[in-house]
Amino acid sequence: MSLLTTEPTRAAAVSKESPAGPARRRRGRAVRGQLTAWAFLVPALLVFGFFARWPILRGLLISFQRTNLTDPPTWVGLDNFRSLFADPLLATAVGNTLLFVALAVLIGFPAPLLLAAVISTVRRGAGVYRFLVYLPVVIPPVVAILLWKWFYDPGSGLFNSALGLVGLGPYSWLESSGSAMLSLVLEATWAGMGGAVLIYLAAMVGIPGELYEAAEVDGAGVRRRVWHVLLPQLRSVIGLLLLVQLLNTVQVFTEPYVFTGGGPENATLTVLLLIFRYAFQDGAYGQAAALSCLMVIVLALLSAVYLRVTRTWSSS
Amino acid sequence: MTALTTFVSAHDRRRPGVRAAVRSVHVLTLLVLLLIGVGPLYWMVKGAVTPPSELTTHPLALWPDRPLTGNFATAYHDLGVGR
Fold first, then answer.
1. Which of B7, B30, B41 is the closest to A135 by Cβ?
2. Is the dihedral of CA A42, A44, A47, A53 positive or negative?
3. Is residue A74 within a helix (H) or strand (E), and if so which, with residue range?
4. pLDDT at residue number A154
5. How many other β-carbons are positioned within 10 Å of the β-carbon of residue A80?
6. Does the predicted interface ipTM exceed a cut of 0.85?
7. 3-state helix, strand, coil in chain A (%, to 5)
8. Taking CB atoms and an 8 Å limit, are B37 and A216 in contact across chains?
9. Is there a contact between B49 and B43 (Cβ–Cβ < 8 Å)?
10. Bridge partners of A222?
């Protein structure tokens, strides 16, 4: 903000033609530049304030209120937080979310790196590989999830029918509490892989070929070139994508909501789904807002790490 | 893309063992990518033109015996997608 407002004054001072002009005129121009800047800034500030900042503040306020959004709210202090921590479902939801994050990192994190490494060695037709790998990303999330729900169907689903041909199964993918979360992660990995692969590929193009040549001259085989050149060169991108993935998977909502609705036996109930249930099934807006505030703290911490880490990388 | 220097060098590629390994990994990856990239999209289209009874009796059929095209018109007019 301060950057935006000081920018026009400096520009006005620089563009001044006569170097020995009176100071008063210079100041007048600077003030006029300031006014112009504010005139351009005010509509954006109003729109952002009303549609982005006010709802955040409102969410914080509601977490200390009891309200049904129509009658005037009553202030209840920390009651919402107290009833939140008294709810045994909170621990379940946090545990499930952590399980989703862990599985998504375990399965969904190495897969794009491996694919990108393979695709980077393709000489002819690499465009075909890139096209195919990005194809799942263009399918709208809800459509993709409904499609996979049909694949997972225990009776006539694609997976059980295909596995039945080789004598395996039938598996209850989404119906048993043991495998439901894994089924969600498989779909999420498939749906989200394309973007990460393209980012890794772009980073791999940026690695100077001389490094590989030098390593080869020194007698390093393919495996050691991957370990000592490729991975160290990608270090910053790998860390960045890991943080982005953490930020995204902590907020998982669409998959459990569309696939299972949180079942079976709350095995896929995530934190965001619990917030949704509080607000739109129980009508407990205060409790939903309270949990949202706690969620914001976690996300803010992750974002702070992200910002700090990217800043040190960009300066080095 | 021009010949980018990667962790598999031009010198490596001239060795028959490495060449065969690289080639087979590429083909395998292409097959997997076709399966997971085009496969679900194709299955979506197939599902859109398959009568529900056939979906349950022949779930693995690549194309229905009696394809329906009416579903698209139903979606457009009755469900109001076009509006």
1. B41
2. negative
3. strand A74-75
4. 84
5. 24
6. no
7. 75, 0, 25
8. no
9. no
10. none
Asked if the peptide bond before residue A170 counts as cis, ω within 30 degrees of 0, the response is: yes
Closest CA to A204 of A240, A230, A239, A236: A230
Confidence of residue A315 (pLDDT cuts 50, 70, 90): low
Minimal C-alpha gap between A224 and chain B (Å): 9
Q: Which of B6, B47, B59 faces A120 most closely, judged by CB atoms?
A: B6
What is the DSSP secondary structure assignment for residue A66, as one 8-state letter?
Answer: E
Inter-chain touch A132–B5, beta carbons under 8 Å: no
What pLDDT sits at residue A14? 47
Diameter of chain A measured on Cα atoms: 92
* Token reading at B23: 């080639």
pLDDT tens string A234-273: 988 898 899 889 999 999 999 999 998 887 888 899 999 9
pLDDT band at A19 (very low <50, low <70, confident <90, very high): low
pTM: 0.80
A79 Cβ contact list (under 8 Å, min separation 6) = A66, A286
Mutate which of A146, A158, A197 to test chain B, going by most B C-beta atoms within 10 A?
A158
Residue A159's identity, in one-letter code, is F
Does residue B33 sit at the A interface (CB-CB below 8 Å)?
yes
User: Which position has the higher pLDDT, A45 or A263?
Assistant: A45
DSSP line for A243-308 = HHHHHHHHT--HHHHHHTTT-STTTT--HHHHHHHHHHTS--HHHHHHHHHHHHHHHHHHHHHHHH
* pLDDT mean over B7-33: 88
Q: In chain A, positions 246-285, which contact chain B (CB-CB < 8 Å)?
A: none
Note every long-range contact of A144-151, with CB atoms under 8 Å and residues 24 or more positions apart, other chains counting. A144/A187, A144/A190, A144/A191, A144/B40, A145/A187, A145/A254, A145/A255, A145/A258, A145/A259, A146/A258, A147/B40, A147/B43, A147/B44, A147/B47, A148/A187, A148/A190, A148/A259, A148/B40, A149/A174, A149/A258, A149/A259, A150/B47, A151/B40, A151/B43
- Chain B CB contacts of A225 under 8 Å are 7
Q: Would you call A206 an interface residue with chain B, using a CB distance cutoff of 8 Å? A: no
Distance from CA of B22 to the nearest CA of A (A): 8
pLDDT, tens digit, for every residue of A187-204?
999 998 999 999 999 999
